[in-house]
Amino acid sequence: MTSIPVMAIDGPAASGKGAVAQAIAERLGFHYLDSGAIYRAAALAVVQSGKNIDSPDLSDTEVADIAAHMRLSFKSDEIWLSNQNITDAIRTEACGNNASKIAVLPKLRQALLELQRNFRRVPGLVAEGRDMGTVVFPDARLKIYLTASAPVRAERRYKQLMEKGINANMGDLLNEIEQRDARDLSRSVAPLRSGDDTITIDTTTLDLARSIEAVLKFYHAANRM
Ligand code: DC
Q: Is 40 touching ligand 1 by the criterion CB < 6 Å?
């Protein structure tokens, strides 16, 4: 199992890690894990169960239990929760924020570990999120921390939403990104951070193609060692 190569790509919200990871998985013929989608699906399942994510009484055990019993399936570009196609529903900023709020719960994180590790299949995996290199796949062959300045990330998110025909406000997006960064960086369990064995790539001035090339260069170098 552990001989199956993993490339871990972590980074803050809207850093472009999704687009980079997906393109690299395709290029290498590897499987792809969008771990954020799993946290988003768990947040949706919690909301649909009638629980208030903002309540101080929200129980880690109950949330972990809901997540452990989710029937999630990944069908090419679609994500299903039981018989519900949640592909678009989990992409809203509200769902991303809810995911970030429940992601501080240690039992929930524990409950999602096995599901994420099951994505490790031959010939290899590109996994993206916040703790891929630090917690979920500590033995990843290559660990990348992909980042960009908050205003540039807000602008990229703005363009993405506009392309989908969703109205957005740049100021609000920047606020939300900064709040999410603060929460993801400061939580006590599996905080977003770049480890000693991680290569940081700042994509503030790089477009998608250049970001992909930068990551691939490190991957090929790691394989030569
Ligand atoms: O990558 P994303 O924006 O889709 O992730 C949504 C939230 O889920 C993110 O703000 C924090 C949480 N998350 C996490 O805690 N650990 C991961 N590996 C992936 C996402």
A: yes
Distance between CA 56 and CA 58 in Å, rounded? 6
67-124 pLDDT, tens digit per residue, is 999 999 998 889 999 999 999 999 888 999 999 999 999 999 999 999 999 999 999 9
Q: Is the shortest distance between the CB of 147 and ligand 1 below 6 Å?
A: no
Mutation pick for ligand 1 pocket among 44, 86, 98, 100 (CB with most ligand atoms within 8 Å): 100
pLDDT digits (tens, 9 = 90+) for 17-58: 999 999 999 999 999 999 999 999 999 999 999 999 999 999
The rounded distance, in Å, linking the Cα atoms of 214 and 167 is 32
Report long-range pairs for 86-93 (Cβ below 8 Å, ≥24 apart): 86/41, 86/44, 89/44, 90/37, 90/40, 90/41, 90/43, 90/44, 91/40, 93/168, 93/173, 93/176
Quick one: 165 exposed, middle or buried, by C-beta within 10 A (0-12, 13-18, 19+)?
A: exposed
* pTM, full prediction: 0.93
Strands 6-10 and 125-129: parallel
Q: Tell me the best of 39, 143, 156, 185 to mutate to test the pocket of ligand 1, counting ligand atoms within 8 Å of each CB and taking the most.
A: 39
For residue 80, report the phi and psi dihedrals to the nearest 5 degrees: -120, 140
Query: Of 109, 130, 134, 136, which is best to mutate to test ligand 1, by the most ligand atoms within 8 angstroms of its C-beta?
Result: 130
